[in-house]
Amino acid sequence: MATFKKTAKKASKKSAPRSRPAKGDTTGGEALSKSISESAQQIWLAGVGAFGRAQAEGTRLFDGLMKEGAGLEKTARAYANTRAGTVRDAVETGVGQTRDRAADTWDRLEKVFEDRVQRALVKLGVPGRDDVQSLSKRVDALTAALQAKKSAPARKAAKTPAKKATAKKAAPRKAAAKTAKTPAKRAAKKAANAG
């Protein structure tokens, strides 16, 4: 390019002082024409060389940019995954804490409700669980005692069946005697109570 400037300056110096070309200047015009042709040729060759270099380096540049972009994408994904993991952990921690607080609150509410219901039942005189359990134990003990008494006479009755038959015959007589004695006893009690 430097060559073009020098040639152009020479051509302008030669042509500037002259206002009209002289007859002997036909060789000067040819030189100028030749100089312009050479300059155009040099410009053309520079352009072709730049295109070739751009094409060769462009492919390398493009490949380099692709590699750099892939590296940046990988870094960005790793960062995003790290941030997503951090955010996920933070959210899970927050949810866990909220769940624990809700469970604690629910337990306290349940306890308050149970206490109030228990106080209301006590005021109404409704027996509690402990009272029902102690009564149940007492009923079980009484049932066991009653069954023990029932099983003891049955054993004796099995040993003496003949006495039972005679006792049945004597029973109606005893009942008649009791009914006869009963009105007399009643009259004696009335007299004692009246006096």
From TrEMBL:
Pfam families: Phasin. It comes from the Bacteria. Residues 1-34, 147-195 are annotated as: Disordered. InterPro entries: PhaF_PhaI. Residues 1-21, 152-176 have a biased composition (Basic residues). This is Poly(Hydroxyalkanoate) granule-associated protein.
